[in-house]
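Students often ask why inverse folding is considered easier than folding. One informal answer: many sequences map to the same fold, so there is more than one right answer. In these notes we will look at a single instance of the problem. The structure comes first.
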């Protein structure tokens, strides 16, 4: 079914790929972002607005009458702003966008969360019940960004309690690699993909997770098409099939996280630390790209 879809954060690192991918489908695409993109796509309707303004957000959504909403806008990097600002901004955007989506009659709402809500990297030491992590493991965020994304998931869950007319999904994209980054452009927090592979300490920060932005786009398109299969408020990890590492995590995890050594034995070969089984089983989505096939420089 062709949707009239609003994508928030459409000018961002992930949003640019998602908007471009959606624009190639039968869907009508509206991108809402504070910033207009440097290289707009012809068929896309770009709107500039501050999504922290609840009233302006609500009236723009009423005017646009979307059937589906994909919400990516956020402060996307931990500690890139004061902790209180990150928490308030991301929580408010999640609430404003979801409320406006419901009020304007959208039937499908997909909200970007993050795997970092799980709590890896915590200075107090983080030991999950198992690896790979799956959606049944309880998040234990340790910074405002992680907490704000956990709040975003709970916003979706709260609205799912208010209406069964709308289906809500939260998804946790792993460390996003945009297409140009395979050719040597710097990744989100600096360093090229090759540098991240050559120095495992750089990838260890995100527990060696990653995903190609085009695979995230495929996930979102698949999720919209198959949303009827989803339990309302469901959460999905969205990652690559392998780890961003040249050696097995069964070796690398004990080296970088000695406290997790007992959990890593099963992570042999190229297995990642995040399971994407649920997205495959429920939605029928699988990533198509790996650093092994995409890396050029
Ligand atoms: N990039 C990753 O590796 C990664 C990993 C996990 C989750 N995520 C999540 O995916 C989403 C997209 O991430 P990204 O890397 O593209 O981030 P990004 O910073 O490149 O893009 C975010 C976009 O949101 C817009 N925005 C921020 N505040 C706004 C506001 N008040 N009003 C309107 N627009 C606003 C920004 O202008 C920007 O274009 C975020 O929600 C992020 O938390 C990203």
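Output (designed amino acids):
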């Amino acid at each position: 079914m062709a949707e009239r879809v609003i994508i928030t954060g459409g000018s961002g690192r992930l949003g640019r790929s998602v908007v471009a991918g959606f624009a190639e489908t039968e869907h009508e695409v509206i991108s809402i972002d504070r910033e207009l993109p440097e290289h707009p796509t012809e068929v896309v309707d770009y709107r500039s607005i501050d999504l922290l303004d609840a009233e302006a957000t609500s009236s723009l959504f009423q005017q646009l009458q979307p059937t589906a909403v994909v919400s990516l806008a956020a402060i996307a990097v931990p500690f890139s702003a004061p902790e209180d600002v990150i928490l308030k901004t991301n929580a408010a955007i999640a609430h404003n966008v979801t409320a406006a989506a419901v009020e304007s009659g959208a039937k499908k709402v997909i909200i970007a969360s993050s795997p970092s809500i799980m709590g890896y990297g915590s200075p107090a030491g983080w030991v999950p019940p198992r690896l790979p992590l799956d959606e049944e493991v309880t998040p234990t965020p340790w910074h405002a960004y992680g907490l704000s994304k956990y709040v975003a998931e709970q916003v979706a869950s709260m609205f799912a309690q208010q209406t069964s007319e709308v289906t809500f999904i939260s998804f946790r994209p792993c460390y996003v690699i945009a297409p140009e980054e395979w050719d040597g452009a710097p990744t989100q927090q600096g360093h090229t993909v090759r540098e991240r592979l050559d120095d495992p300490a750089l990838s260890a920060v995100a527990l060696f997770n990653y995903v190609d932005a085009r695979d995230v786009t495929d996930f979102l398109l698949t999720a919209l098409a198959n949303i009827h299969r989803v339990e309302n408020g469901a959460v999905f990890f969205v990652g690559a099939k392998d780890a961003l590492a040249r050696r097995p995590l069964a070796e690398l995890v004990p080296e970088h996280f000695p406290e997790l050594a007992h959990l890593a034995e099963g992570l042999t070969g190229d297995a990642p630390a995040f399971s994407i089984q649920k997205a495959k089983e429920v939605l029928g989505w699988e990533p198509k790209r790996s650093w092994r096939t995409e890396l050029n420089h």
